[in-house]
Design a protein that fits this description.
alpha/beta; Rossmann fold; 2 domains; five-stranded mixed β-sheet; 6 helices; binds guanosine-5'-diphosphate; binds magnesium ion
Length: 255
């Protein structure tokens, strides 16, 4: 998630290991694209019906045509986590209702903010409105760090983000999503940090799912077998039938 041109599709492609998501130079109004393992592509139209789609023609979908596009791919990451590439949150034509429809399905969020205009008021305002469940496992990725050339500028930017945005996220990761052949981390600053977060959160989510699978505690009383009733009714005892051992009749006494 994030605003236009923040690097969302570039990140999706890096995670998927292919150029699946259209990386755009101009604002477009693509619907959320949900990548899943397998083959084929379809979208959910305004009437909630599934319609087959030739992914190459995704640009032809108008903003109100599709609530979400499901694109099935053969990518390693999709065996552990599905990836949703959201449209820019700053798009005035954005259909927020179709976003909200997806929220219950989302386990972790990477919010991309570009270093040159990082964490604008509009982003902060929208993030505040996100449900708590989405914010629990979330990271702010400060993209385009390769374009911040001076160390002073870098320190100043990250200090500001630390104050203004870090408390709202689980993590803040400065990243560069365009490769730099001689750089460490495969040239993509911060990418290994993103992969570690995904791995850690997947492990947590699996552990939570296992706990939920366990039989719930049941506090209803366990039924007891019925009390044994004598086969014939007991006769009432005659007085004096039972003499306590240590009590002797007053007349006789012990010799
Ligand atoms: N230099 C640099 N360019 C980036 C980075 N991330 C994205 N871009 C470029 O920003 C443009 C928009 O990226 P895109 O992924 O389409 O942004 P989206 O609108 O958030 O999906 C593309 O030209 C990308 O190559 C980055 O970390 N560094
Ligand atoms: Mg995009």
């Amino acid at each position: 998630m994030g605003e236009f041109s923040a690097g969302k599709s570039t990140l999706a492609n890096l995670l998927l290991g292919c150029s699946a998501s259209p990386v755009m130079a101009t604002p477009t109004q693509l619907p959320p694209i949900w990548y899943r393992a397998g083959q084929g592509c379809r979208y959910i139209n305004a009437d909630n019906k599934e319609v087959p789609l030739d992914f190459a023609r995704i640009n032809e979908l108008g903003p109100d045509d599709a609530k979400v596009v499901f694109s099935h791919l053969d990518a390693r990451i999709l065996n552990v986590a599905e990836v949703i590439d959201f449209p820019g949150s700053s798009d005035p034509n954005m259909n927020f209702d179709s976003w909200e429809m997806l929220f219950p399905q989302i386990d972790m969020v990477f919010w991309c903010t570009p270093a040159n205009q990082a964490w604008r008021q509009s982003e902060a305002a929208l993030w505040q409105e996100m449900p708590e469940k989405l914010r629990t496992r979330s990271a702010l990725l400060v993209t385009r760090m390769d374009q911040v050339t001076s160390e002073t500028e870098r320190m100043r930017l990250l200090r500001r983000i630390e104050c203004e945005a870090a408390p709202e996220f689980g993590s803040v990761v400065p990243v560069s999503l365009v490769g730099n052949a001689d750089g460490s981390d495969g040239g993509y600053e911060g990418l290994s940090g993103v992969l570690e977060l995904i791995q850690r959160w997947c492990t947590e989510i699996e552990a939570e799912a296992r706990m939920e699978e366990r039989a719930p505690l049941d506090f209803t009383p366990v039924p007891r077998p019925p009390a044994r009733t004598p086969s014939r009714p007991l006769r009432p005892l005659e007085p004096g039938t039972i003499v306590p051992r240590r009590v002797f009749p007053a007349s006789g006494g012990r010799s």
